[in-house]
Amino acid sequence: MKNSKKIVLVLAMMMLASNGYCQDKKAVKMKKNTQNIKPLEIKPSATSSEKDFDFLEGKWKVQNRMLKERLNHSTEWSEFESELHLRKTINGLGNIENYYATFNDKPFEGMAVRLFNPKTKLWKVYWMDSNNGTMDENPVTGWFENGLGKFYTRDVFNKIPIIVLYQWNATNPEHPIWSQAFSTDDGKTWEWNWEMTLTRLEK
To answer: pLDDT tens digits, residue range 87-100?
Structure first.
């Protein structure tokens, strides 16, 4: 019963947030004006399904590697550990991820809500965290094919229009890898700025 109430609360937050929010993954603020952002046209793969994230269910230790400066020709990376928990919800059409880390000696918690649309065969991923207490206006949208998931959205970083890519590589389901990249030239080139390598703690 408690889990049902939490799910209802999360979905209610999503409806409220659609009227008016910062998109980045895990803990880094992204200043932006999203009112004039043209959405991307994204088509699903032939195999896209509600079972795409089954590999991620359970609890994981996460080794993070993060670029220290984004879109500034940086080659310096920082590394740290975190933890990720995921459980399915709404009869398998969605899942909720909790992400736990420490930044500047302060506890950080993030939450991803992923929803699969059976009609479009596409996933949408909504992110919120303890830094901002808000939900992204432009969720990444995408699909899986042959163990590789790609999820895109348009955004603005430091007043620069970008495309954001979240990539899941689940070809090794015991050590899946999540990566994030930004493109300033409409997807022609990408700067990879975050990589998380997961090791299972328990199912």
So the answer is: 999 999 999 999 99
